[in-house]
Fold:
Amino acid sequence: MADADEKKIEATVSAEEVEKAKAEIAEELDGETATAGEFEVTKEEMSIIRAELACEFPEDYTYFSDAYVKSVASKPYSKDPTVRRPLEYTMEKLTHVMEWREEAGAPEMESLVHLANGPETAPEAVEDPEKLAKAKALVTSLNNASLYWHGFTKEGKPVLWIRCGRKPWYPNVEAEVNALILIADAGIRCMPEGVTDFVVISDSYSPPPPVPSFMINVLKALVRGYPDRLNVLMSAPVGSIIQFVMNLLLPLMPGRLAGKFLLKDEHDGQELMKEWLMHGEDDIPAFFGGKADHDTLYPEEGYSKVRGQGSLKFDYFGMIERLQASAKEWEETQKKAES
Structure:
């Protein structure tokens, strides 16, 4: 990308916006370091954490699996890595996530899909036109099929695919972030027992011009709403636009998060997918030079049809069914390997 183009893009995001994002992320991390190791968490302690979450967030407390709560509670304490985090500190971290979910409206996102998939004459749609408008904007962001779950890794982590070339040039930033929250939560709900994080693979060929405000909001959502959920993100092939995106975001990222981003050419990306994906080479999609056909399931919007009586074209509910079936397949494979 030419220097003049970079300056145009940089002009769309103010220094104040960058500094505010950096401050919010730093506050959320509060001096945490990537200390390795884990400590025991007793059943009684898990019960205490669960009870407090249920009391404070009765409609959303089941969002956290026991495996995720334990992964947070068992980490070394940043102020003294020789001991485990105090329960109060763990509750504070989990509470921050739940508060962010309330602020972002995460628990209601799937209900918006149902609303947008129904008729505009439905009582809820008629009584709350603002909610209907939000729902329609959300499914519009879904309909280009630029973001979807498909398959698992050999370690049982769901794989989130990003099709950068399908992203709009002039996105509705709020709706795009809402779509990311919706999709992320759907994948987390489908994780096999004991799995707490996911893998992202980005087809970064021909991305649209970057929108810094959107990218910063996505990073803030990842840090505040989905801490320790990202296992790794691999982007291939890498051109000047992706390089620009990373140059903008890397200074904002905590070190342990920055280390999870891999920028590869297409060949190296294929080799990593062979190593990671549950069925190896057979799972590499056609748009990465493989055999797996994603486009039949997740076509571009022009080849999609309306799913219900509303405006949803993206096969959101089919995606969840397929992911649940893949999770079951992975679990069965593990049982056979252990027997």
Notes: Residues 215 and 249 are 8 Å apart (CA to CA). The two ends are 54 Å apart (CA to CA). The chain has 14 helices and seven strands.
